[in-house]
Write a structure and sequence with these properties.
mainly beta, 2 helices, 10 strands, 12% helix, flat
Length: 186
């Protein structure tokens, strides 16, 4: 048995279609204002530290035979501190720690700071927090240096973005994708 088409349903569909069509013609600006941005974005492997201890005979007795190990080690990635200063004013100061249950994931930094267009002095410091337990140990390929810094002057136009990122090959922070605005001929 087929149902008859109701005029109210057809009318509702036509009104909804007209409303969507009218709203699609409304002007929209994705970004308001004329701020420029300094963006910090990188991923890096920090230094992994392990703390090991020997299990007592009682602890070993509670562990199934196929899982027994005399020594248990717990590892984590050493946290880093991030400090960003723009024109002598501290914009960011925070700790960047590894994620994950075992704190063994890479360190991630993603921050975006609006700044007024014009010339700015930018200082970024990414430094290990505290000493590594048991000394420096052996450094693995690709691990972060103890401290990274970038100190530069840049000129940004409206809605221009300066990207600070970590160059793993050179093992330092760099300004990437940034071009100084062209100067008007005199």
């Amino acid at each position: 048995m087929t149902r008859p088409i109701r005029p109210s349903g057809v009318l509702l569909a036509l009104v909804a279609t007209a409303a969507v069509g009218a709203l699609s013609r409304v002007p929209y600006t994705s970004q308001s204002g004329s701020d420029a941005f300094v963006r910090l974005a990188w991923r890096a492997r920090g230094e992994r530290v392990e703390t090991c201890r020997r299990l007592s005979p009682e602890e070993l007795a509670r562990i199934p035979a196929h899982m027994r190990r005399e020594e248990v080690c717990e590892g984590r990635i050493v946290p880093y501190g991030l400090t960003v200063t723009v024109d002598g004013v501290r914009a960011v100061q925070e700790s960047v720690a590894s994620k994950g249950v075992r704190e063994d994931r890479p360190l991630y930094v993603f921050r975006e700071m609006p700044v007024a267009p014009g010339r700015h002095r930018l200082s970024v410091v990414f430094a290990r927090l505290g000493p590594v337990p048991g000394g420096e140990g052996g450094r693995e390929e690709g691990e972060l240096p103890v401290s990274l810094d970038l100190d530069t002057t840049l000129t940004l136009g409206p809605r221009q973005v300066a990207l600070v990122t970590y160059d793993e090959e050179r093992r330092r922070l760099i300004l990437k994708g940034y071009r100084a605005p062209l100067r008007a001929p005199r």
